[in-house]
Design brief:
single chain; 222 residues; alpha+beta; TATA-Binding Protein; 13-stranded antiparallel β-sheet; 5 helices; 13 strands; 25% helix; 37% strand
């Protein structure tokens, strides 16, 4: 058994950025393996839940001052790999990507995938991005199978994790799972139910995801 990465999130910044390049080129998507699955939306500053179509806004006022917009967002789909990614481009030139990892085995493969997305966005909007970015979150799953004595397992794992929270029967959503926190000052954690199904949250690389799961894997079926 081994953990499988499922989702990622990363942040970066365009080296050369002109916010008006987005409004000039958003309807001329370059030929590639990516498909725009929805419209390009404008998001108001400080109001992530309030967005409107960039096309609709420009048809109403083609000379709008885009510098007052907080960000642009859209979603891409790659039919060949069946991967989806959400893209935010902020008016500061910073960007955020999040989506499924697909079948990657290590962080190098994940970074190559991220680079293909960034290359596509650069080509589309005539921008230039830094090739240094931060993968700030990798999530995953792990199928351990049902254990005979979970309390004994958890007791044996206390030396391997910074903090363990047992099921809290008075709180909805925590009644049937243990939470294993790998680090003192981070929210990186593994949530494991009684049936042995685990979710991993908040890792910064695929290697870290695998590493924090190993003690759990070693102890689960001893």
């Amino acid at each position: 058994m081994k953990p499988v990465p499922t989702m990622f999130q990363c942040h970066g910044k365009f080296r050369l950025f002109d916010i008006y390049n987005i409004s000039k080129h958003f309807e001329t998507i370059p030929s590639s393996g990516y498909i725009l699955t929805n419209q390009v939306d404008m998001v108001l500053k400080g109001r992530l839940g309030e967005a409107t179509s960039l096309k609709d806004v420009l048809s109403f006022d083609s000379e709008i001052d885009l510098r007052g917009i907080g960000s642009f967002r859209f979603k891409l789909h790659h039919p060949e790999s069946q991967r989806n990614v959400s893209v935010f481009i902020f008016n500061t030139g910073k960007w955020k990507l999040s989506g499924g990892t697909g079948l990657v085995n290590n962080s190098i493969e994940l970074e190559k995938y991220i680079n293909t997305i960034v290359n596509f966005i650069e080509s589309w909007f005539k921008l230039s991005a830094e090739r240094e970015y931060n993968i700030c979150c990798v999530n995953g799953i792990l199928r351990l199978g049902k254990a005979v004595n979970t309390r004994l397992i958890v007791s044996n794992l206390r030396a391997h994790y910074h903090h363990i929270i047992e099921p809290q029967y008075d709180k909805k959503g925590r009644r049937n799972c243990w939470k294993f926190y790998a680090f003192e000052k981070r929210k990186c954690q593994i949530s494991v139910g009684r049936e042995g199904n685990a979710q991993i949250f908040g890792c910064i690389s695929i290697e870290e995801l695998k590493r924090i799961c190993q003690p759990l894997i070693n102890c689960w079926n001893e």
